[in-house]
Amino acid sequence: MLIYLDPGHGGSDPGASANGMLEKDITLKLAKKIRENLVEKYEVNVALTREDDKDVSLKDRVEMANKAEANFFLSLHVNAGGGEGYEDYIYSGLSALSKTAALREILHSVLANFYTGYRCVDRGMKKAGYYVLKETIMSAVLCENLFIDNAYDTKLLKDEVFIENLARAYTEAIAMTLNLDKKVKLLYAVQVGAYSSIVYASRMANELKSKGYDAIIKEIPAQ
Ligand SMILES: [Zn+2]
Fold first, then answer.
1. pLDDT tens digits, residue range 76-107?
2. For this structure, is 144 an active site residue?
3. Ligand 1 center from residue 108 Cα (angstroms)
4. 105, 144, 172, 207: which one is catalytic?
């Protein structure tokens, strides 16, 4: 099983920028953390379309994944333009009955659940004609992670702990979507309980924080 993670933009193309942040930096950081989590926890190979801050054309990104015969392509982006929240895309030419549509539904449900736990908006499952979705020969999904020009969203994107938890949510979402085998069984523990899902751990931690408790999430082995 080979997954290609595609950190959007890079090099001379910063992507969206606002509030002192660049989309290209967020997508790369997130992709690296997701890879780290995935290979640590699951029987899977993960490649990135770029490892650092450099220009990679959309054509090159697609060719890399196609040549390697990757099983899944996930493009990571951050939105801009006055909205708020999370949304994801599959190629507009795909039917609702396609394998990619079914996989995206699983991916979306985990991520939307995670985001709404942070009181972020779920903008839904969408379709578009984006190049990386159209030209990849494997199932491909493009995720728009919050809005860089929205005050609430930016506060989260600047928070290292949030990015860590988001990477964990992606790891779980990808593992569920592709039915990956676990290397090590892990639970996500908060001070008042242990959950098999980062989604519920984050919800509880947020609830505790809203009540003034300094809650942290820690991974512990499951019995
Ligand atoms: Zn982008």
1. 999 999 999 999 999 999 999 999 999 999 99
2. yes
3. 18
4. 144
